Amino acid sequence: MNRTQNGGGACTVWLTGLSGSGKSTLGHALACHLRSLQLGYELIDGDEIRRELCRDLGFSKADREENIRRIGYVARLLNCHEIISIVAAISPYRESREEIRRKTPNFLEVHVDCSIQTLIRRDVKGLYLQALAGAIPNFSGISDPYEEPLRPDVYVNSGVQSEADCLARIVSKLEDLRWIPEAPRRAAEPVLGQENLLIA
Hints:
The protein is α/β, with parallel strands linked by helices. It has helices at residues 23-36, 46-52, 61-80, 94-103, 116-122, 127-132, 163-176, and strands spanning 12-16, 41-45, 84-88, 107-113, 154-157. It has a five-stranded parallel beta sheet, sandwiched between helices. 36% of the residues are buried.
């Protein structure tokens, strides 16, 4: 857990999207930004929660909903101690996410979008191709539903936007809501070879 003496706003940033869309990448980037502001935060990664807290759950609809319910509860516990929760989890069902929103003050839903074609190109393990071939059941977006947010608080597309651009949108929204302070502005410094770098 990353506590600081300055504390921070009690909010939850919920990154939802298909496997490989860049949720964890953006979660880590946001964590670094919050650390630079000396704010308390915790990054809750869906894969890690599966291994540590939800090993008893499978991938049925009921189990997926229970997985999200547990993550939401952990996020709210952290918020009670002025810790910003960053959640990076597929969370495929719209109603499950809306239930978390209803229970969680200062909830920011971020839809990390990306085309299936781009996700297949990124997928070094070949999971998408296996799912398309019917070898992996209950694979979100292929053999199991993924219900996109209808009105996300922030929308980013990691297939066409750089990591920096995606992060900037999230940070800007948090600043506008006054859930985090604005960072000191510095003059932009171009970095050679980085202008078209997209999230992997």
